[in-house]
Design a protein that fits this description.
single chain; alpha+beta; four-stranded antiparallel β-sheet; four-stranded mixed β-sheet; 6 helices; about 40% helix; globular
Length: about 220
């Protein structure tokens, strides 16, 4: 399913003959001259995170500090702590500049980015959908210079080009990929949970079978 999801994401964002008929029909109707590819610098505001707010933060979420501080980690490991001021209040895409270089995440909540994390925000929400931007940057490969500490910089990210179809097409692509993402997540989370449940069931019956406490006595002849 992960391979299938990655394949269809690439197909949907390539805008060539492999594109699904529904996308090709929308492109033909809305932009007969084809899809324009733009560098991120033209359609996004890109910024680098700063230092953590040491004087106003908590490792645990509380009433006073409820705004997530986001680092360059992946998944839950990206949460560094919580503060009371958000630097980003619009839907955005974060991209890790160090460590897991290129790891992209969609953020639709206020947050405080810190060093080694790049934030990409669409300049015009009527031109670029933030969730569509996320899918364009997901698993993106970057030409990182060899030597020294490998890192992705703002100037390097600004040069990346993405296809920019009409907003209607972007939303349709997001809808399709969201469905695939839900399926993949369900499989990823559901199968291990099912295996764990079956393991517990196995241990339960194994213990029952080997205790002999609940078995009726064998009748004498």
């Amino acid at each position: 399913r992960k391979k299938q999801y990655a394949y269809y994401r690439e197909v949907l964002l390539s805008f060539d003959e492999k594109s699904p008929s529904v996308i090709k029909e929308m492109i033909k109707r809305l932009c007969p001259n084809g899809i324009e590819w733009k560098p991120l610098d033209q359609c996004c505001t890109i910024s680098a995170g700063g230092d953590a707010p040491k004087g106003a933060m908590s490792k645990e979420k509380c009433n006073e500090y409820s705004i997530p501080i986001i680092s360059n980690g992946t998944g839950e490991n990206a949460f560094y702590g919580y503060t009371n001021i958000a630097k980003v209040n619009k839907p955005a895409v974060t991209v890790a500049a160090r460590g897991t270089i290129g790891y992209a995440a969609y953020r639709d909540y206020p947050y405080f980015p810190i060093i080694r994390l790049l934030t990409t925000i669409p300049k015009n929400e009527n031109e670029l959908n933030a969730k569509y931007l996320y899918y364009c940057l997901q698993d993106k490969k970057y030409n990182i210079p060899i030597g020294g500490i490998p890192q992705l910089t703002s100037p390097m990210l600004k040069e990346i080009k993405i296809p920019l179809p009409p907003l209607e097409v972007q939303r349709k692509i997001v809808e399709i990929l969201d469905q695939f993402h839900t399926l993949t997540t369900s499989l990823t989370e559901g199968i291990p949970a099912e295996i764990e449940a079956r393991r517990k069931q196995y241990h339960y019956y194994r213990n029952k079978l080997l205790t002999f406490k609940d078995l009726a006595p064998i009748p004498k002849e």
